[in-house]
Amino acid sequence: MIRIIVIGFIAGIIARLLSPGPNNPSGFILTTVLGIIGAFLATWIGQAIGHYELGQGAGIITSTIGALVILFIWNRLVASGVLSDFNK
After folding, report:
1. Residue spans of beta strands (DSSP E) within 5-81
2. What Cα–Cα distance (Å) separates residue 81 from each residue in 14, 22, 41, 46, 69?
3. Is 46:58 a contact under the CB 8 Å cutoff?
4. Which of 25, 29, 42, 78 would suit a FRET pair with 86, their CA atoms being 20 to 30 Å apart?
5. Is the per-residue pLDDT at 67 higher than 80?
């Protein structure tokens, strides 16, 4: 559990640094949640395409890619007005 949180936090920080735009969720908890969701997304997709075995999780690189996908979706939802910008 601690490993998931640490990898999620690192992946969230890297994703926030790589993703341009002011609509990124900020703060320790949101950054960690962003990375954890990205790790789950990367693990799920990796297992679905046969890249990971059952019970095997995504690494830091694929977790970061998953977090970038989540940030892209987040930015599109904020830009379209579906979500409000929480940083205001």
Report:
1. none
2. 26, 14, 24, 31, 18
3. yes
4. 42
5. yes
